[in-house]
Amino acid sequence: MSGNRQTTPEKAPCGTSTDPAKAATPPPRAIRCFVGLPLPPQWQDRLAALRADLHAACASPDGDAPPPTIPAPTGLAGLADLLHRLHWTPPGNWHLTLRFLGDVPAPHCDEVADALRAIKFAPLQLTVGRAGVFPARGAPRVLWLGLAQGAPECAALATAVNAALAPLGFAPEDRPFAPHLTLTRVRQAQRGDKRRGATRSDGKSPSPSSQPSHQSAADARDALLAAIDARINRAASPWPGCTVREMVLWRSDLGGGRPVYTPLAVLPARG
User: Measured between alpha carbons, how far is residue 40 from residues 95, 96, 99, 247, 250 in Å?
Assistant: First the structure.
């Protein structure tokens, strides 16, 4: 039997639009953003000098990288390995983060800036405190500097930032705010390095001395923190305090191997 058979249009796949105009509309572009405090050039220079000094001291057999409380052979070897795995914040990029916002649709960035402009805060007086790591136990992932002065004021400002942005859909973070300056992130040891200590070429188990030592890793971490604190507290060259007079909404672009921070809004202190 022949004849014309009527056909119905195929249904569009789930999640697509049959309207060509709507289908051609790209989603809003997202911008990676954070709110923070800029650090003055003298702090940027001192942080860069601190990084260079630590690496130079560890590279020199006569350097003072391991404090006296750390045995020299363990301290030097472990500290050299740890320094090799540090991914330092590029000079000029050091800042104090008040709130990381993540990807924000570009049209909403102006709303974020307007909300931040409503915050009144006085200039902040900051001085450097002790070095620390996140997490406090186990393999470190982040090396940071705390604040000896200005921590409560920074915490209060971070609370104000969270309150101002909550109506825009930015829920407060679960963990309490801890004012700190991120110095470097720690690359984890490569799996291949760990496997090389797992078996020998003859298939036998390695000797205990060839196994990774958690104690030596902890000693290296403590040696690095003590070395940083010693350099910051040198009486002959005290670390200067600073006054921060503005808060910044930054755009963060991660491409190209080095983060590029571009101010989207500069919010001066007032009140």
Answer: 9, 11, 20, 13, 16
Q: Which residues are annotated as catalytic? A: 95, 180
- Residues for the chain: how many in total? 271
pTM of the model: 0.76
Residue 6 tokens read as 């009527």
> φ, ψ for residue 19 (rounded to 5)?
-85, 115
State how far the Cα of 121 lies from the Cα of 142, in Å rounded to an integer.
Answer: 29
> pLDDT tens-digit profile of 228-267?
999 998 878 889 999 999 999 999 998 777 889 999 999 9
Which of these, 41, 37, 49, 88, lies nearest to 232 by C-alpha position? 49
Q: Round to whole Å and give the CA distance between 252 and 264.
A: 10
Q: Where are the alpha helices (DSSP H) in the chain?
A: 20-23, 41-59, 72-84, 109-117, 151-165, 191-196, 214-232
Coil/strand/helix, residue 33: strand
